[in-house]
Amino acid sequence: MTAKYEWIGGLRERANASWPFCRLRIHDDLCTLEPTWGWLAIIEPTYEFTWDDIDSVFVIRGAMFGSTGIRFKLKQPVAAKRQTAFAKLWPHNARHPIFWCSPKMVDLILRAVPEGLVERNSVPPRVII
């Protein structure tokens, strides 16, 4: 399946994979967060969720360095499509994954997400890494 949009960034879901170790793919009906390169599948899982799985999508900032990202607040945990060899490091289920990216990418990603899911805050919440 060919992605409608694709970006390279980082992933946070209990453990953290910084840029450029995660790829966000947006299709017509779903999102995929996956390792950028195949060999990273040893340590980083693949998560796939539909728009119906998502409660909201919003901008978030890292507390230490002010990095920007997009948080996908899921209605319920979504099982990893492909689990890693390091299952204790990464969770089997994604609850509220964060895709770390540049501020410019944040705007592009929010435009690709269905409008009803985008939660706009005047001050993005901070997350401790």
How does this structure look, described?
There is one protein chain. A hairpin with a 5-residue loop joins strand 5 and strand 6. Helix content is 8%, strand content 47%. The N and C termini lie far apart (33 Å). The protein has 129 residues and is mainly β.
How far apart the termini lie comes to: 33 Å
Count the E strands. Answer: 10
Strand order, biggest sheet? 8-7-4-3-2-1-9-6-5-10
Kindly report the average pLDDT value.
Answer: 84
User: pLDDT below 50 for ≥5 consecutive residues: which ranges?
Assistant: none
Which series of helices and strands comes N to C? EEEEEEEEEHE
Helix content: under 10%
Number of helices: 1
Largest sheet: 10 strands, mixed
Strand content of the residues, in percent?
over 45%
C-alpha geometry = globular
The helix/strand class is mainly beta
Radius of gyration: 13 Å
Oligomer: single chain
Short description:
With 129 residues, this protein is mostly beta strands. The protein is built from one helix and ten strands.
